[in-house]
Write a structure and sequence with these properties.
The protein is an alpha/beta fold. It has 8 helices and 11 strands. The structure holds adenosine-5'-diphosphate and magnesium ion.
């Protein structure tokens, strides 16, 4: 079963074709990485899945819902797509405590008050931040802030988690730590994860399948082993070497 399908999705900005015509089926509970060099269209693709950006044409299906269809003039806003999102720049609310940041999506979805506390504490434990609930983001390290962002994305139990280069602002040690945490979440939760990165080590470590992108087009899709052992072309070969 697929959770996310992109069907002939394209993106044009002015005279520039950023994404020519893109189709991809992402399976339920799959961890899929979009891997490619800077400027190849990864962020554009993930923003279109999120509903933060509109394709010029095409169709996007998430779960049982068609969330975008240019032919039908159909558009679901991000909050109607049952997704969590984590970006490279944390994007936490600085005036709220860690607990309040995480409780916010639950309040927005009108989760009953007596459920909010237990769910926030459960998710804080999962990201190893149980002790930090009353701090403000400014009182946390970069790695801790990114874990708050992850907790905030997961707390509503979305069907799909979108991650756009979530480790790129962290130093090497924290990157490994966060990578381990994502692997742990993947193991224990049925969530579908779409992970954008230009770093092949992260992609290889975490992914069920990797999509190699170049100039908005798919060069090859496969497991890390398939891509390494039988690269479809020189681009895939050279990209995986770096
Ligand atoms: N708002 C915009 N206006 C014009 N060009 C853009 C805009 N956003 C992105 N682009 C271009 O689209 C291409 C893909 O960008 P992006 O999706 O951010 O790539 P990536 O995330 O893979 O680095 C780049 O060439 C970028 O310059
Ligand atoms: Mg990007």
């Amino acid at each position: 079963m697929n959770t996310v399908s992109l069907i002939n999705v394209s993106k044009q900005i002015g005279d520039n074709t950023i994404i020519p015509s893109f189709s991809l089926d992402i399976q339920s509970s799959e961890f899929i990485s979009l891997l490619g060099p800077s400027g190849c269209g990864k962020t554009t693709l993930i923003r279109m899945i999120a509903g933060l950006d509109n394709p010029t044409a095409g169709k996007i299906i998430i779960g049982n819902n068609t969330v975008f269809d240019s032919a039908m003039n159909l558009f679901f806003p991000p909050e109607k797509r049952n997704l969590g999102m984590v970006f490279q720049n944390y994007a936490l609310w600085p005036h709220m405590t860690v607990f309040e940041n995480i409780a916010f999506p639950l309040k927005c979805h009108h989760v009953p008050k007596d459920e909010i506390g237990p769910r926030c504490h459960e998710i804080l434990k999962l990201v190893h931040l149980a002790e930090m609930a009353t701090r403000k983001p400014g009182e946390l390290s970069g790695g801790q802030q990114q874990r708050v962002a992850l907790a905030r994305a997961l707390v509503y139990r979305p069907q799909v988690l979108l991650l756009d280069e979530p480790l790129s602002n962290l130093d090497a040690n924290l990157r490994v730590e966060m990578c381990n945490l994502l692997a742990e979440i993947k193991k224990h939760s049925p969530i579908t994860m779409v992970y954008v990165t230009h770093d092949q080590t992260e992609a290889v470590r975490l992914s069920d399948r990797i999509v190699i992108l170049n100039k908005g087009k798919i060069e090859q899709i496969g497991t890390a082993r398939e891509l390494t052992n039988s690269p479809a072309n020189d681009f895939v070969k050279s990209f995986l070497k770096h």
